[in-house]
Amino acid sequence: MRVHHVVILGGRFAGLAALHWIRRLAGHRSIRLYLVTPEEESVYRPDLVWAARAQPDFVRRTRFPLSNLCRMLDATLILDRAIGIDAQTQTVYLAGRTPLRYDTLFWATGLDWAWELVPGLGPARGFVCEDYAARHTALRLQQHPQGSFVVAAGPLRQDPAKIPNLATTFDGPLYEMALLWAYRKPRSARNHHRISLVTPASMVGQELGPKGRAVLLPLLKKAHIDIHTGATVDGVEADAIWLRGSGRLPAQTMVWMPPSAGSRLARDSGLDDGWGWVPTREHLQHRQWTNIYAIGDLNRATLPKLGHTAMVQARVAVHHWWATFNHEPLPPPYHPTMVSIMEIGQGRGLLTIQDVLYGGSREWVSVGRIPALTKHLFGRLYRRGYGGLTIMP
Amino acid sequence: MPTGENPHSREADSWKDVYPSHARSPKTGVIRARTLDAGATNRINRADSTPLTGLDFGGQTPSIPGPRDPVLTDLGLSRTPDPDQPGLKRMPFLRGQSTLTAFARIRRHSGMLCRMEIPTGPTIGFVIVMMVLGEVFGLGVLALLAYWAWQRGRRRLEEWLGQSPRVGPSELLYSLSSWSLRELALTAQRATTGRPAISPMEPPLGRAWLDEVRFDPATITPPAASNISQERIRTVLGPQATRPVTLAIPLILSGMGWGVGVSGRARQALAEASALTGIGLNSGEGPVWPPEPQIAKPWIWQWSRARWQDQRAIGFRADMIELQIGQASEGGIVVKKPRRRLPPRVRQKLAGTGPFVIHGGLTAPLVGWVQSARRVGRGCPVGVKIPATHHVEEDLMQLTALGIDVITLDGAGAGTSGSPAVLTDHQSIPIAVAIVRAHDWLVSRGQRSTVSLVASGHVHSAADIAKLMALGADAVALGSVALLALTHGQVSGVLPGRGPTSLIFSGPGDRTRIFDRDLAAERLISWVEATEQELKTICASVGVTDIRDLGRHHLVTDTREAAIALGLAWHGDRPNPLDLNRLIRQLLNEWHRGLKTWAHLSRLLASPRKFPP
Question: pTM (2 decimals)?
Answer without folding.
Answer: 0.80
